[in-house]
């Protein structure tokens, strides 16, 4: 039998907001150009404004694309957590461990109709949540066939996002980068296997959450004191805004931009605006913190950041109460349905959510 958590009306989650903790990075890892895991910050990038205009489709034929048919579970996140615990000799003491992307979906739920599926398991006192990869694959297969209103395949439009990252970042700080590199970024091969991931501790109401997520770039340098805010930069592309309707669509998109950045404590979002056929024409900076207010003031898109936060806080509290014994649980949100379902898919064990390596480490700790 499935347990259910109500989504609507959003007003249910209005009112006094839940206390949130500022996310603090306590560890990080990288994937190199071959997507090999590295316990360091070697794939960190520095933001440096792109040359305008630029053709975002340039180099599409040379795109080195990560094969996302492989289910990576929580493996890299767990490796990084275990390594941190080995260093400090203490457990990270979170209630929930997951990828930032899962929390983004949960927080967006009151104002976004997207379906999702996740697997969750309890190990000792912590819940581990991963994406249900098989479901994601189905969604991706449908997405691949899609062609945009501009007649351009969605795969090419996705390339634009990665191309914008390559045009706007440097692999070393500006002071250590040659003029030649900066001027020839358009020739760089776009590779989305390479990533820098930040691992943070954050809090929603009564729940301590450990999140891992990709960060696109840094503005200057990491602070000298660990735990101090970091000047992260999130890069996004979006269609130029030329009408009331464009602004409405953009204001809706800003909710996801805001949630995604809020969760890792990314203070700045740089949006590269592009024409319908993929010419990058301008770049604009947004302060993550001011986005909910700016959107509300325009009054076009109806979403409320406080409702997102409160919804997530109460949902996580409910989830922790409900996932109370062994096995694997499915968290499911279907399109157009007014609740999130939770039901068991395996009676014992932890599926493939946590690795044996991680369990063995925890037994020793
Ligand atoms: P844009 O966001 O500029 O479109 P992120 O913004 O999270 O750093 O991701 C970088 C790029 O990956 C995105 O660029 C987009 O091209 C692609 N991407 C990320 N999430 C996606 C999703 N859910 N579906 C399709 N493409 C996605
Ligand atoms: Mg990214
Ligand atoms: Mg980005």
Q: Helices and strands in order, then pairings?
A:
Elements: E1 3-6, E2 20-31, E3 37-38, E4 46-47, E5 54-55, H1 75-88, E6 96-99, H2 100-108, E7 116-123, E8 126-131, H3 133-144, H4 154-168, E9 169-170, H5 179-183, E10 195-204, E11 207-214, E12 217-218, E13 232-239, H6 244-264, E14 268-274, E15 279-287, H7 291-298, H8 305-322, E16 328-333, E17 339-346, H9 356-364
Parallel strand pairs: 6-8, 6-11, 13-14
Antiparallel strand pairs: 1-17, 2-3, 2-10, 4-9, 5-15, 7-8, 7-16, 10-11, 12-13, 14-15, 16-17
The protein binds adenosine-3'-5'-diphosphate and magnesium ion (2 copies).
Residues 214, 216 line the site of one magnesium ion.
Q: Level of helix content?
A: 25-40%
Tally of helical segments: 9
Largest sheet: 10 strands, mixed
Gyration radius from CA atoms, angstroms: 21 Å
Q: Return residue spans where pLDDT drops below 50 for at least 5 consecutive residues.
A: none
Give the names of the bound compounds: adenosine-3'-5'-diphosphate, magnesium ion
Number of strands: 17
Order of helices and strands: EEEEEHEHEEHHEHEEEEHEEHHEEH
Structural class of the secondary elements? Answer: alpha+beta
Average per-residue pLDDT, rounded, comes to 96
- What is the terminal separation in angstroms? 36 Å
What share of residues are in beta strands? Answer: 25-35%
Strand order of the largest sheet: 1-17-16-7-8-6-11-10-2-3
The geometry reads as: globular
């Amino acid at each position: 039998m499935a347990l259910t958590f109500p989504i609507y009306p959003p007003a249910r989650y209005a009112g006094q907001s839940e206390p949130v903790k500022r996310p603090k990075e306590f560890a990080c890892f990288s994937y190199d150009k071959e997507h090999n895991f590295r316990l360091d910050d070697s794939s960190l990038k520095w933001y440096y404004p792109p040359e305008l205009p630029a053709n975002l489709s340039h180099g599409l034929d040379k795109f080195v694309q990560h094969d996302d048919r492989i289910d990576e579970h929580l493996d890299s996140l767990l490796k990084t957590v275990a390594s941190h615990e080995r260093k400090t000799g203490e457990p990270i003491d979170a209630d929930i461990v997951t990828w930032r992307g899962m929390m983004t979906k949960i927080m967006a739920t009151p104002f976004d109709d997207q379906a999702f599926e996740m697997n969750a398991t309890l190990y000792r006192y912590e819940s581990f949540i991963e994406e249900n990869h098989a479901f994601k694959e189905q969604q991706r297969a449908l997405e691949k066939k899609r062609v945009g209103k501009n007649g351009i395949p969605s795969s090419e439009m996705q390339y634009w996002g990665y191309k914008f990252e390559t045009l706007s970042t440097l692999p070393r700080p500006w002071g250590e980068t040659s003029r030649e590199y900066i001027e020839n970024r358009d020739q760089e091969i776009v590779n989305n296997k390479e990533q820098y991931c930040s691992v943070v501790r954050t809090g929603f109401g009564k729940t301590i959450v450990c999140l891992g997520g990709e960060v696109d770039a840094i503005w200057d340098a990491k602070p000298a004191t660990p735990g101090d805010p970091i000047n992260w930069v999130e890069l996004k592309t979006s269609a130029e805004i030329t009408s009331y309707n464009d602004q409405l669509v953009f204001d809706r998109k800003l909710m996801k931009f805001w949630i995604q950045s809020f969760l890792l404590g990314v203070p700045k979002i740089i949006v590269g605006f592009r024409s319908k056929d993929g010419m990058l024409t301008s770049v604009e900076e947004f302060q993550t913190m001011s986005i909910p207010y700016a959107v509300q003031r325009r009054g076009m898109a109806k979403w409320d950041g406080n409702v997102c936060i409160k919804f997530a806080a109460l949902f996580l509290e409910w989830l922790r109460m409900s996932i109370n014994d062994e096995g694997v649980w499915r968290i499911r949100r279907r399109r157009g349905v007014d609740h999130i379902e939770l039901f068991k898919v395996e009676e014992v064990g932890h599926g493939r959510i946590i690795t044996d390596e991680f369990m063995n480490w925890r037994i020793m700790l």
